């Protein structure tokens, strides 16, 4: 008789744990669905905003003066490779 009582208690505990597990899983799934819905809504809002901005944004102006292809020398920059290497050696860099 004691064995039956212990079995019954174990079965009741297992049933309670199973019920708690089902409730926890339902809560988890509900939260995940809410996150997916929120993400979908925010994505739709962002895409709508980007579409509105792209249609209302003016085209970028081109400058009237054409740019030269040659790079402008930076102040203090060496004019030749040999000069640059010489400056590197003077600065303590080994080549």
Query: What is the string of SSEs from the N terminus onward?
Result: HH
> Total helix count?
2
The major pleated sheet works out as: none
Q: Quick one: how many beta strands?
A: 0
Uncertain runs: none
Approximately what portion of the residues adopt beta-strand conformation?
under 5%
Query: Structural class, judged by helices and strands?
Result: mainly alpha
What is the straight-line distance between the termini? 93 Å
What's the gyration radius in Å? Answer: 36 Å
Percent of residues in helices comes to: 55-70%
What is the general shape?
elongated
Mean pLDDT: 84
List the helices and strands and how they pair.
Elements (H helix, E strand, L loop, with lengths): L1 H55 L24 H10 L5
What does this structure look like?
The structure is a single chain. The protein is elongated and about 100 Å long. By secondary structure, it is mainly alpha-helical. The relative contact order is 0.04. It has helices at residues 2-56, 81-90. The N and C termini lie far apart (93 Å). The chain has a domain at 1-59.
